[in-house]
Design brief:
4 helices, elongated, single chain, Four Helix Bundle (Hemerythrin (Met), subunit A), 154 residues
């Protein structure tokens, strides 16, 4: 069986988890844009103040920081710091041919940890709770990378 095909149930788990995470990264960017438009502030660059169909009444205050927008921007940045590592470690993990149940626990566990992190951050939950879900996701990726290294080096 080819490990990188949908005939491999571990690759199927990876494909599902990776697709969900790619959608999370991409949709978070759109959430930021939505929040900028809704708030009319939190715009990122001076050229955003040019008048146009979307920004009919530009003003310098639109460049002011807006927590509603910045919270989404921070979520996006956090995704970009964590999800690419999962995508790489997860693919390498598939290649070492782990048992299906371990792949399911780790990969779906990462997706759930990132979803919980998003909910806690978006709803202004406590740092401790947010850090707990970050830690779970981070430890999953670290475990997969170490497992791959261990397998390859033996």
């Amino acid at each position: 069986m080819d490990l990188l095909s949908l005939e491999n149930p571990v690759f199927e788990v990876y494909a599902i988890a990776a697709s969900i995470m790619v959608l999370k990264v991409m949709l978070q960017g759109w959430m930021t844009v939505y929040r900028m438009l809704k708030a009319g502030s939190g715009w990122a660059s001076p050229e955003d103040l040019r008048q146009g169909p979307i920004n009919k009444k530009p003003g310098p205050e639109q460049l002011d920081a807006n927590d509603y927008v910045e919270r989404s921007r921070r979520l996006h940045r956090n995704d970009l710091e964590n999800i690419p590592a999962f995508l790489a470690a997860g693919l390498l993990f598939v290649i070492i041919d782990p048992t299906l149940w371990i792949a399911q626990v780790l990969m779906y566990g990462f997706v759930l940890a990132r979803a919980a992190h998003f909910i806690v951050y978006a709803t202004k939950g406590s740092h401790e709770l947010r850090a707990t879900f970050y830690t779970i996701g981070s430890l999953i990726v670290i475990y997969m990378a170490v497992h791959v290294l261990w397998t390859v080096m033996l």
